[in-house]
Each structure stands twice: as C-alpha cells, then as structure tokens.
C-alpha cells in the first residue's frame, strides 16, 4: 500500500478569504512603503526588467519582488500577532516552500514535488497525469509573483492564497482543463526570496503560522550564471526592448553580487546555515547531486515532506517513474512546454516568457562552453572567499 497519505491533491488552497477591507488597507500601506523607499534604495541595471534595487542587502525587481518582500514581512507578522480565526485555520496547514535562486532547478523541483506529493492520486505513468498538460510553473504558485502577491494590479496580499483558475489568456486552456482541485492538506509555494527576508513567524516552527518547511535547491554558480544570462538575454530584449547584457557585463554584475535575489553567495549561505541548524525544517539539495543520483535524492525529498516511499512503492518502481516523468528530456518534449506560455504570474504581470524558456540544456558544466580562463579564476576566487569555512562545496565548480 502506498505510504502517500493524501487523498486530495496537494495544490494551493483556494478558499481562504482575506478580510477584504483589511487586505486593501495592507496593500495600500505596502505600496506606500515601497514608493517612499524606492528613491533611496541603491539601483543597478536589471537582468530581466529594467532595474534592480537593493533592499536589506538583496537585489530585487522593484515592480514585484520588492513589494513581495515588504508584504511578506507585514502580513506574516500580522498573522502572528492577531491570532484571528482565519489565521488559525491557515496555521493548521503545513506550508512547504520550494526555495531557489533563479536558474538553480526551480522548474525541475516544482515537477518533482508536485508528482511526489500527489502520487497517491496521480500515477506517474498515467497518460492523464496533470504534468503532461500543465507546465511545472503552473502546478503551484510563486510566493512573490503569483496572484496573491506582487502581480500588476496588486490584487492579493500574501496571506490570500487564491489561485485563479478561470483565465482566458493565450495558452491557458490546457492548463485550466487539467488544473487540479484544491486541497486542505498543504500549501505549496515556490519562492526566490532569500531566507533572511522571511519573517520569524514563518521560519520558526513554533509560530502561529504552523509548520513551514523549505526545500532549497542549490546549483553551482557558474552554471547558474550562464543559465541566467541566457534566459535574461532573451526575456529582457522581448519585454523591455533594451539591449541585453554582454557576457562580460553580466559576469561583472554577478561577481559583484548584482543578480535577481542575489548576491548568489548570501542566498545560498542563508539556506545552507538554516539547513545545518534546523535539518528538519530546511532540506538543502544540490542540482548536480540530483542529476547524478536522482533516486536517493527524490527519496530524501519524499521523506522530508513527510511522505516517504513505501517498500512496495520502491519495488514497483514508483520513484523511477516520477524521476522519468519529471526529467528534462520528458518535460521539455511535451507540447505544453514546447509551445505555450502559461505561467500564471508572468502572464498576469504582462511579462512574456515562453514555457520553453525554462528548458535550455539542463546540463552540469555548460559554463565551460562560455567561460574564459580569467572568468573561471575570478569565480573560483569568489567561491573560496565566500564559502570557505562554511562546509559547503560545489560539484564541478
Ligand atoms: P527559474 O528559477 O526561472 O524557474 P530554473 O528552472 O531554476 O528557472 O532554471 C532553469 C534551468 O533548469 C535551465 O538550465 P540551463 O539554462 O542550464 O539549461 C533548464 O534547462 C534546467 N531545467 C529545467 N527543467 C529541468 C529538468 N527537468 N531537469 C534538469 N534541469 C532542468
């Protein structure tokens, strides 16, 4: 018998109704705070949008990530102190965050988490598995970009987890047809926000927000940099009409810590240290390990999320089936990921990103095709300086 205990799919809960007046008031306060802060924040050129601003040491896109960071702190703190009946209801649901610096494996882990947690409902070999017709970015929301937060009309505060299923935008039909109904078993979010920007009410397990767990995926900085530069080059040109960074300019920014949600090393170290201090709350995975040993790592993931694979599942090959379903080769060949543009949050924010933009090569070590010797030396030096003594090492750095 399956050890996956859910009888409902694990997708965002939809019936949380934020008190309307309060929600609007908070949004207005947050928008005002951002507007007031903005002129005084350090600024640099953006990789995807026009600009990045530095807030509490983190480089964020002002149009959504900055607002999200402010909202996240205010709303979760608010819920910690009010203890209202709605917050109590929310508090009883575990929150699982998939946390990554962009281009570290978000798409892959979204698919793996979704398929693993919902395996009692959806057999990974089924021709009707939702992942065959739903892009990984639509399986569960992005904390800072989805419609409860930071979208272009700022219509949702962070604690309202409404996921809009009724959308008539391009490419949305396949997703809507296959969209899975809500559950009350867990709340899943993807996020790029660093650990330091999460309020204590989320990171402390005894908080009134209930159980929060983070699955963090780290990828070696050289491959993250190339992946980000390639993605940014395309998306920035399409969306802003601005000339994308040259390789040299992008590299210099990255080495100075200027990249979305960066500096890279602060992001990684924040979650690394948290995983050492609270291994039951933060699982630290490496993209390269997942590539090399997917079986062992998917098992770790399932255990961490409280749904270990049973012996029977293992003997039936369920782990391998999930790995195959979520593989780069399989996902990138699906029609939904080849030809559609369905990520709810990007579509709503009017940012054009094709699903295929999330699938490039999926290789370890592609940086070698782009880096000069000098670039490799500079990055190695930074890795030495920033990570020495931390206990964290990089595969194929
Ligand atoms: P995001 O943070 O913007 O969502 P993310 O998914 O983290 O992006 O990164 C995309 C990278 O993951 C791409 O790497 P590349 O540019 O070096 O090729 C993409 O190819 C890779 N990727 C996407 N899906 C998978 C997968 N199923 N398995 C392995 N790698 C994948």
TrEMBL record:
Swiss-Prot/TrEMBL keywords: Transferase
Gene Ontology molecular function: sulfotransferase activity
Family: Belongs to the sulfotransferase 1 family.
EC number(s) reported in the record: 2.8.2.-
Sulfotransferase domain span: 96-391
Protein name in UniProt: Sulfotransferase
């Amino acid at each position: 018998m399956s050890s996956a205990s859910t009888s409902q799919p694990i997708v965002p809960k939809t019936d949380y109704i934020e008190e309307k007046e309060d929600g609007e008031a908070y949004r207005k306060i947050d928008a005002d705070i951002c507007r007031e802060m903005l002129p005084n924040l350090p600024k640099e050129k953006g990789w995807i949008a026009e600009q990045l601003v530095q807030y509490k040491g983190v480089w964020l896109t002002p149009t959504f990530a900055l607002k999200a960071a402010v909202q996240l702190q205010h709303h979760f703190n608010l819920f910690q102190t009010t203890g209202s009946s709605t917050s109590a209801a929310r508090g009883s649901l575990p929150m699982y965050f998939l946390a990554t610096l962009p281009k570290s494996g978000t798409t892959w882990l979204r698919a793996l988490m979704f398929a693993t947690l919902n395996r009692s409902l959806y057999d990974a070999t089924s021709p009707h598995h939702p992942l065959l017709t739903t892009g990984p970015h639509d399986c569960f929301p992005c904390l800072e970009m989805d419609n409860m937060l930071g979208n272009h009309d700022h219509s949702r505060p962070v604690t309202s987890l409404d996921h809009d299923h009724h959308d008539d935008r391009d490419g949305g039909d396949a997703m809507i047809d296959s969209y899975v109904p809500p559950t009350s078993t867990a709340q899943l979010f993807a996020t790029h926000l660093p650990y330091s920007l999460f309020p204590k009410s989320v990171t402390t397990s005894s908080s009134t927000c209930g159980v929060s767990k983070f699955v963090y995926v780290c990828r070696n900085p050289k491959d993250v940099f190339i992946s980000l530069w390639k993605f940014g080059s395309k998306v920035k040109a399409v969306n802003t009409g601005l000339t994308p960074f040259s390789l040299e300019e992008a590299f210099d920014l990255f080495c100075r810590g200027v990249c979305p949600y960066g500096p890279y090393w602060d992001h990684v170290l924040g979650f690394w240290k948290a995983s050492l201090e609270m291994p039951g709350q933060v699982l630290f995975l490496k993209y390269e390990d997942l590539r090399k040993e997917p079986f062992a790592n998917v098992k770790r993931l399932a255990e961490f999320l409280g749904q270990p694979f049973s012996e029977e599942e293992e003997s039936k090959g369920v782990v391998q089936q999930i790995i195959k379903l979520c593989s780069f080769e399989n996902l990138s060949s699906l029609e939904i990921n080849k030809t559609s543009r369905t990520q709810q949050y990007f579509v709503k924010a009017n940012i054009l990103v094709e699903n295929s933009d999330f699938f490039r090569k999926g290789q370890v070590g592609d940086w070698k095709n782009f880096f000069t010797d000098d670039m490799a030396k500079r990055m190695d030096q930074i890795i030495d300086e920033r990570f020495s003594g931390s206990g964290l090492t990089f595969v194929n750095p």
